[in-house]
Design a protein that fits this description.
With about 220 residues, this protein is of the alpha/beta class. It has eleven helices and eight strands. It has helices spanning about 10-20, 30-35, 40-55, 65-80, 90-105, 115-125, 135-140, 145-160, 170-180, 190-195, 200-215, and strands at about 1-5, 25, 55-60, 85-90, 110-115, 130, 165, 185-190. Helix 1 links the parallel strand 1 and strand 2. Helix 6 packs parallel to helix 8. The chain is globular and about 70 Å long. The relative contact order is 0.13. It binds SN-glycerol-3-phosphate. SN-glycerol-3-phosphate binds next to helix 7.
């Protein structure tokens, strides 16, 4: 399973990269706004900086909702760097645009996916990645990880090549459960990635080893 970091924060991207396990980055308009990135030039420049920081797929989201606008915007984003993946919402014109990008050799990430039906449509349109939002599904009292397992089963039976990118990850357990359910990628906040490190018995064991090492 690949690890992406779900942020537009350069310090966090660098910290995850230094861990040596980072395969890519996903962003969205909310994450960009959180970093205070304003205006088209600044947005494009920020994506360029991320691409120059991490050698892996970098998802950059369109904000248009009509076919022509999504294609126009996606072409601009894809021109920034070969690693850009155009992130397109799961709406009617989004599906049409996904197919257009697929036919024109531009990588895509279909975002805001909350059902198996939507995931089938994204795969039929040739999306490179499909992004089910695990945490937001859990928030609405459904089981986000169960959706990952269902999509993994459907894609395997049908031979779809779209990669399942588990998004809206909220904690380390989500990452473990998504790996178990067959996600190809997890995109996570830095805290959730670092949460994988934690176990009290590791801390206790290390303290004891270091204490005993003084007697060696
Ligand atoms: O990038 C999309 C997704 O990961 C958003 O997560 O925590 O806002 O539901 P969250």
């Amino acid at each position: 399973m690949k690890f992406f970091i779900d942020t537009a924060n350069l310090a966090q991207i660098k910290e995850a990269k230094e861990l040596g396990i980072l395969d890519g980055v996903t962003t969205n308009p909310s994450l960009m706004a959180k970093e205070g990135i304003k205006g088209q030039d600044a947005v494009l420049q920020h994506y360029k900086t991320i691409c120059e920081t991490v050698d892996g797929d970098i998802s950059a989201e369109v904000i248009s909702t009509d076919f022509a606008g999504i294609v126009e915007e996606g072409k601009k984003l894809a021109a920034i760097h070969p690693n850009i993946v155009v992130k397109v919402p799961m709406i009617k014109d989004g599906v049409k645009a996904l197919k257009w990008f697929t036919d024109n050799g531009i990588k895509t990430n279909c975002t805001l996916v909350f059902s198996a039906g939507q995931a089938i449509l994204a795969a039929k349109a040739g999306a490179t990645y499909v992004s089910p939002f695990i945490g937001r599904i859990d928030d609405s009292s459904w089981d986000g990880v169960e959706l990952i397992a269902q999509i993994a089963q459907i894609y395997s039976i049908q031979g779809f090549e779209t990669e399942i990118l588990a998004a809206s990850i909220r904690n380390a357990l989500h990452i473990v459960k998504c790996a178990e359910a067959g996600a190809d990628v997890c995109t996570c906040p830095l805290d959730s990635i670092l949460g994988l490190l934690k176990h009290p018995l590791t801390d206790i064991g290390l303290a004891k080893f270091l204490e005993d090492a003084k007697k060696m």
